[in-house]
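name: query_chain
kind: protein
chains: 1
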Amino acid sequence: MQARTASGYFGLFSFISALVGVVFCGGCLIFWWWAGVGKAVVLFGMLWLFGGLANSLAFLVLHRMDSAGYEVGLWRWPRDFKLYSEYWRIAPLKGWSRWALAGSVLCFALAAAFLFSLPKAGWTVLK
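structure:
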């Protein structure tokens, strides 16, 4: 078996995802405050915040699995579910928190809730 080194990309992706979510949320809140538009802009900002946090935590899980020697790649989502279940199994053995995976799922659900509440707030794509 050949020794494999961790790529290091997933740690960077985790940071960038969180940063983009916070910046877009802040931009939406500034726009809401400055322009005095409806609450749909705030909901859109919260969507970006929780979406960025969900991606950031998912990339943190992938970074940890990559550093543990598991084969991790981009755009492999059907196989990533197996990787996530393996993370859930080995996290206590490695001293990692399971909250990274649980928080990712929770933030994804919150982002979806904000996304689906946009039409009720008066934000429609087609007018």
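note: The chain has one domain: 9-121.
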